Each structure stands twice: as C-alpha cells, then as structure tokens.
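User: Design a sequence. Structure:
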C-alpha cells in the first residue's frame, strides 16, 4: 500500500476530489498553506494499493493546472527601504506536488 500526498491549488480541488471519488479512491483533504506564497492550498492524502497509484497520478495530472502568479518581493535586508521599489515577479504554481510514501501498516478500528 502507498500513501500519495498531493499539494494542489484550491481552484483544482473540487473537480479533483470528485474525479478521485468516482475512481473509488479514499481521500482526506487538508487545508494547508504554501511556505513561499503564504497562501492557502490543499493537501490530499490518498491511501491506495500499489497497483492503483498510477491511476491516481493520471487523475492528478489531468485535473491540476499550472498557473502563473505575481509575487511582490520583500524589501532587501539592510537596503534603503525608501528608494526600493518592489517589482513583482512571476512564479509558476502547480499543477500538483506529489509525494509517494510506502505504508507499513494500515488499520481502522
Ligand atoms: P508555495 O510554497 O506557496 O510555492 C508556490 C510556488 O512558488 C511554487 O510552486 C514555486 O513555483 C514558487 N516557489 C516556491 N519556493 C520558491 C523559492 N524559494 N523561490 C522562488 N520560487 C519559489 P510549486 O512548486 O508548484 O509548489 C506549490 C506548493 O506545493 C507550494 O506552495 C508548497 O505548498 C508545496 N510544495 C512544493 N514543493 C514542496 C516540497 N518540496 N515540500 C513540501 N511542499 C512543497
């Protein structure tokens, strides 16, 4: 068994959860925050048998979009904040950041 942990954008979550549910995947949805943008995102925990991992990855791939986002950088340390004009930079966020972990035991009581 594997635990697939996927960090996805909030905008993709509803569709993703629906499609995973249609595929009989069991999911736990966590409200999380990205360390860089400090904005909300969603982390899905999907526990499944090894032979279904590729199917879960296909669903993630097909339902998570890449989006560009502008970020205002923080003023440089020690610099003159008065003359500093923050220039927003573009970052590409998503589709999904996925971790696949082996599950040693799975129990439900
Ligand atoms: P955030 O940490 O808010 O990052 C959002 C996007 O900002 C990232 O998109 C990446 O394009 C950019 N970014 C992140 N750190 C950066 C840095 N130090 N310098 C420049 N740009 C940076 P994604 O890579 O698609 O990541 C989306 C979200 O997935 C992340 O949100 C974070 O919540 C999670 N994530 C990504 N990599 C991770 C990792 N290695 N471990 C844990 N969570 C991760």
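Assistant: Done.
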């Amino acid at each position: 068994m594997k635990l697939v942990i996927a960090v996805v954008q909030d905008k993709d979550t509803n569709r993703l959860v629906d499609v995973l549910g249609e595929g009989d995947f069991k999911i736990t949805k966590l409200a999380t925050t990205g360390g860089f943008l400090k904005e909300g995102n969603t982390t899905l925990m999907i526990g499944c048998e090894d032979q279904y991992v590729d199917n879960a990855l296909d669903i993630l791939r097909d339902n998570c979009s890449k989006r560009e986002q502008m970020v205002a950088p923080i003023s440089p340390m020690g610099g003159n904040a008065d003359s500093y004009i923050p220039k927003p930079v573009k970052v590409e966020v998503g589709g999904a950041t996925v971790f696949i972990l082996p599950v040693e035991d799975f129990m439900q009581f």
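Residues 2-67+95-102 form a domain with the Alpha-Beta Plaits fold (CATH 3.30.70.120). The first helix runs from residue 10 to 22.
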